[in-house]
Amino acid sequence: MRITFLGGAGTVTGSCHALEVGGRVVLLDCGQFQGMRAVEARNREPLPFAARDVDAVVLSHAHVDHSGRLPMLRRQGFSGPIYTHPASRALCEIMLKDAGYLQEKDAQWENLRRRRRGWPPLEPLYTQADGEAVMSQFRGLEYGERREIVPGVTACLHDAGHILGAAIVAVDLEERGKRVRLVFSGDLGVPDAPLMHAPAIVPEADLVLLESTYGARNHRSSEATLAELGSIFLEAARDGGNVVIPAFAVGRTQDLLHLLALHYDAWQIGRWRVFLDSPMAIDATAVYASHPGLCRLTPRAPPNFTIARTTEESMQINAIERGAIIIAGSGMCTGGRIRHHLKHNLWREECHVVMIGFQAEGTLGRRLVEGVPQVRLWNDAIRVAARVHTIGGLSAHAGQADLLRWYGNFRSRPPVCLVHGEAQALHGLADALERDFGLRARIPAIGESIELG
After folding, report:
1. Element (H or E) spanning 5, and its range?
2. Is residue 301 exposed (0-12), middle (13-18) or buried (19+ Cβ within 10 Å)?
3. How crowded is the C-beta side of 412, counted as CA atoms within 13 Å?
4. For residue 174, what pLDDT is reported?
5. Is the pTM of this model over 0.85?
6. How many of the other CB atoms lie within 10 Å of CB of 201?
7. Where are the alpha helices (DSSP H) in 240-386?
8. What is the torsional sign of CA 23, 28, 30, 32?
9. 226 has a pLDDT exceeding 90
10. 2-217+396-451: which CATH architecture?
11. 222-394 belongs to which CATH class?
12. How far is CA 300 from the centre of its chain?
């Protein structure tokens, strides 16, 4: 028995961990690398085994950095089942189709550049049709339900509190009389999220794969976060411009709409026009509404909330110079309609940009958070004159104290492999685990294998 780290090791994105048990191969996630061009190039690197040799996938949740290479895996010959929570399946039906569309568009732009240089064309990683086709391989697995997915591998999902359907994955492995329980945290949410439940406690493990996105820092309290967010809306109203909010289509968008409804009077949201400009986020919000039992509160939206599904509706928003709260994707500003809204608002001193989610290295969102004075959008240099705010307390990822508290509920002190973090976060969490529990965590590199049992 062994585990090999194929993504999400030494980096936040590209989640993929291969379990080999009794001649079978099971992947925990098969996500897309996101960020700098060199990082995204890893999406095209072959797996260390043929896709047809993968027997099954257990998917922790729907975000593309965890699910986004599944259509590629199918395209290369994978025909096995993909086990995930039914809500994650419903979200993947939206997200993987959209991801395929974006892959096609990216290939078109890249091939235009390659033609100019006399280079051969590049095939898209996968297509919209591939994103639709892979859905036939999904199998629902409810929280708390134990199921043998291949001989020697039994999986059980627990609520991770990150987004709708997100799971902590516990797998019991057995080979030649040896038994090992591995617990993969997936992406852990915060205990007091606007909509999601707190992450479940899983008390027993022989090895823990622990995410480390915010392993070196803690978030502000929810009270301080809400006070800061409310003050931004009040200040922006006085400045007389727009508020542009890059938001992940799944998770942050639904939390934000709920908060705007909840604090409608206190934040004077009635004086604004609130736009959700993302077809994927619109569809994902409908999925949230259809699974109210998975949320600790019923999702809401403010009464002055307008959806912009078509390109024409999106373009009409760009004509509004003041009084608009514009929520659009992508959350890291790497693509989507948010880039058009930034182009129309970043250079205006009276406007505000509010960053409410994690920004990976190399992304436009990260550069804005770091305070660059100028960005390029479609080869145009855009001055950054708008106020850029970073609201860390709205993150869907646990902070360092939350991660330590979650790990502290294991009855023993199982060894830990830290995954899904940048270097500072990984080493910060490793130091904290050693300080609090006397535990020397392992930080695996991509391609590294560990023998189990």
Report:
1. strand 2-7
2. middle
3. 9
4. 97
5. yes
6. 12
7. 252-262, 279-290, 311-317, 338-345, 364-369
8. negative
9. yes
10. 4-Layer Sandwich (3.60)
11. alpha beta
12. 22
